[in-house]
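To: structure subgroup
Subject: Chain for Friday's discussion

All,

I'm putting the inputs and outputs inline so they're searchable in the archive.
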Amino acid sequence: MTLTGDFGGPPIEEPAPNYPTVFGITLTPVVSGVLIALVGLGAAVYLGSLLIAPKLEEAAKLQEEIAQQENDLSQREVILKQLNDVVAGLERAKQQNRDVRSLFATQEALDTLLLDINRLILTSGAQLTTFEPDSAASGIVQDGSLGPELNAKLKQQVTNVTIQGPFPSILQIMQKIDQQQNFLVINNLTMELVADKPGEVITTFKLMAYVPLTPEEIAALAPPPQGGEQQGQPQQQQQ
């Protein structure tokens, strides 16, 4: 069987695909893929701005609050340390005040102390010639002899003492007086040799004992308060 025909004619052209066009851009598959990717990226960024940005802002605020609280805590610790230092300083001052006041005697203890010293002299082998209060030299300390900070805070009781005896006995008496816990001071000390008794001396001195003023005595020394409103001012007329 013989086939005849014209097989050498021009090829048949297939029609070009018809892609949609938007704003002058033909939406080919490649272009459409790129646009879809861009839209997805934009949507992701938008969603991120809606969801992640507030969380980031919240985290930043939380971090700022934490830093502020840490700073406040640090300041509280500094203030607490300062308060503790102040309290410790007050306690030290109170203890120092107690230590200083313990050097002084009360009036009752001072009277007993003077009697003890009297007995000490009598039992030491020395002869007690004079042991009498000096009222003219006694009284409230206001001359700055103990420092200006103690003016009008102490009173002194002065006793004139004269003893005679061997020098070792006199020295022993002085040492025992110095060993007393209370605040005693020996002033105007003089010694004379006894002409007819070799080795003996006549010793005279002022024994000064200090006692803190009582609150009533301190209040009595305080200057009187100045008058407030002047008397005799005319009263306001009542409406």
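Points worth raising on Friday:
Residues 29-102 form the longest helix (74 residues).
Residues 23 and 87 are 83 Å apart (CA to CA).

D.
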